[in-house]
Amino acid sequence: MTTEDLHAKTRLLKARADLVLNHPFFASLAMRLTLKEDRTCTTAWTDGKTFGYNPHYINILPREKLVGLSAHTVMHPACNHHLRGKDKDPHTWNKACDYVINPILLNAGLVLPDGFLWDEAYAGKAAEQVYTRLMEGQGDEVSKDEENNDSDPSAQATGPDERQKEEDDSNSASADDPENGVEKKHNPDADMDPGGSGEVRDGTAAKDKSFSEQNDTDTDWDQALIQAASNARSMGKLPKGVDILVKERFSPTLPWSSLLSRFIQQSARQDYTWTRPNPRYIHQDLYFPSLASDQLPPLALAVDTSGSIAPSELERFGAELQAVLAMNPSLIHLIYADMAVTGYDVIGAHDLDLSFAPKGGGGTDFTAVFEFVEHQRIDPCCLLFFTDMECVRYPSFTPAYPVLWIRTGLAGVAPPFGEVIDMLPDDTFEVWK
To answer: DSSP assignment of 204-217, as one string?
Structure first.
């Protein structure tokens, strides 16, 4: 390895260290990629397994932009871009993916290399949507170059890092030499990285490989995304754009409107009041009571936070909780429990942006939840229990309210009361009694 090559790898490792200190979410993901020198590429690339890079390009980037390049490149597999680009034009697919992830990176305070792609019209869109528009020639593509840097607030982020200026200047003279294979100014159309921030190439998902084909470097990026988001959230450093991305990726899958309809019928129809007559009949001089509220009656929602619950399962529980909140319940008694109740909160429909932060990690004892509901004198129209059902400890009494067990993992045994609904891996559900 030449001095220049060693210097490039050292700078990449330092960039990862910066991510660990300031952007733990991106750092957790970046650590999953294996660094590999590749002089055939112009900038950098990933296929979900490798972080390939041209040492010349790495050495001419200011440190803050190298940190941005590292975060940008790893966001491609985090969004499964390496699995969704087959049968697509690689150049246009890279553009579409850049338009989707760059707003997230900029909002997180990262600085990207000169020439990065950005267009507010594409923020929040799926990469496939942007790809279709680009292929059809719809929409204006906006590139952060010298022509528009002065008009956008984020343009100032492209300035050099003063702390690294001397180091970068010392390398730029040799790196700008045409014999080294890197032009002084990056040509957006020279390769498959039109934004100069890191290319995505086709890869293979770990779950699509046979057991014999898998190795220690294979990564399940869905799991990686959840774990990285969970860790960053616990540190209070999860970027808002990433939080939205995770919630959209793991959207609710259970039909709560139909599942809870029976409890609405049983409880809400009895909630009448004479203090507010039903306006539908007043014009006939008839006075009938009206419903006191059109909200779903108070319900209890318990979350199993024992050690057998995987981070991906907790993330799905959180998505389903948001869906229940969207049904406008008057109150939700939210209970976290493993061997004992580890957390309790009372929330309502106004808490749609609730940060789902379960605590626990021990064994499982279902009794704790039902005894807690009784001791707190909670009177729910029903209790929803998110769990993997890997427990045999149930209360000695049958609750007076209906119980829906939402099971994940397809394990456990049938409970002595209530109905069980399976959350299946293929985003479907089925009732299991």
So the answer is: --GGGS-TTT--TT
Query: How far is residue 175's CA from residue 194's CA, in Å, rounded to a whole number?
Result: 20
**For residue 179, what pLDDT is reported?**
37
Range of 198's domain? 3-236
Does some domain include residue 89? yes
Residues 119 and 266 in one domain: no
Q: Has this prediction a pTM greater than 0.90? A: no
- The tens digit of pLDDT for each residue in 209-251 reads 443 444 545 567 887 887 788 788 878 888 888 887 777 666 5
CA–CA gap between residue 300 and residue 120 (Å, rounded) = 41
Residues counted in the chain: 433
CA–CA distance, 127 with 132 (Å, rounded to integer): 9
Same domain, yes or no, for 217 and 281? no
In this structure, how many other beta carbons lie within 10 angstroms of the beta carbon of residue 259?
Answer: 18
In one-letter notation, the amino acid at residue 121 is A
> Does some domain include residue 173?
yes
Whether 247 maps to a domain, the answer reads: no
Amino acid at position 196, single letter: G
> Is 102 inside any structural domain?
yes
**CB-side neighbour CA atoms (13 Å) of 385:** 29
* Alpha-carbon dihedral sign for residues 231, 234, 236, 239: positive
DSSP letters for 79-112: TTHHHH-TTS-HHHHHHHHHHHHHHHHHHTT--P
